[in-house]
């Protein structure tokens, strides 16, 4: 898988980059929402992970912009948040996020969650392109 990971903390980016590389995935890192949006303009990803709170353009604003791009319309997007009180806001479908995870999260747990989300997206895409015949 090719994953975009956006977080303003260098240590966080490096920790998850290492975990995803160990799991044999490729990554592109972004330090803020603007860099994440630019990355999606330039290439396609199998999944995108955005920190909610970043300088300049935060995760929600970046998510909104990414969803308007050709490479961002059908890709699973995970929001990471250290703020549990924002759950109700973020799980609403209008945000465009597919999953909300709370920090801190173990790198292996993040990898597992991304893999599950991508598998779900793959199954849904296969079902929409190969509809089952009507049983009647």
Give the topology, please.
Blueprint: E1 2-6, H1 10-22, E2 26-30, H2 33-42, E3 47-51, H3 59-66, E4 77-81, H4 87-90, E5 99-102, H5 107-129
Parallel strand pairs: 1-2, 1-3, 3-4, 4-5
Structural account:
The chain has helices at residues 10-22, 33-42, 59-66, 87-90, 107-129, and strands at 2-6, 26-30, 47-51, 77-81, 99-102. It has 136 residues and is an alpha/beta fold. Strands 2-1-3-4-5 form a 5-stranded parallel beta sheet, sandwiched between helices. Strand 1 (2-6), helix 1 (10-22) and strand 2 form a beta-alpha-beta unit. Helix 1 (10-22) crosses helix 5 (107-129). It is globular.
Quick tags:
43% helix, 5 helices, alpha/beta, five-stranded parallel sheet, single chain, 18% strand, 136 residues
Condensed summary:
With 136 residues, the protein is of the alpha/beta class. The protein has helices at residues 10-22, 33-42, 59-66, 87-90, 107-129; strands spanning 2-6, 26-30, 47-51, 77-81, 99-102. α3 (59-66) links the parallel β3 (47-51) and β4 (77-81).
């Amino acid at each position: 898988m090719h994953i975009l990971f956006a977080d303003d903390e260098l240590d966080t980016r490096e920790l998850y980059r290492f975990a995803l590389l160990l799991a044999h995935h490729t990554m592109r890192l972004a330090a803020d929402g603007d860099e994440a949006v630019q990355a999606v303009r330039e290439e396609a990803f199998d999944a995108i992970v955005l920190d909610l709170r970043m300088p300049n353009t935060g995760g929600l604003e970046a998510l909104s912009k990414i969803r308007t791009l050709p490479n961002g319309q059908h890709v699973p997007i995970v929001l990471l948040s250290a703020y549990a009180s924002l759950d109700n806001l973020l799980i609403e479908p209008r945000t465009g996020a597919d999953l909300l995870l709370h920090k801190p999260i173990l790198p292996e747990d993040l990898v597992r969650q991304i893999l599950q989300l991508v598998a779900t997206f793959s199954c849904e895409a296969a079902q929409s392109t190969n509809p089952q015949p009507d049983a009647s």
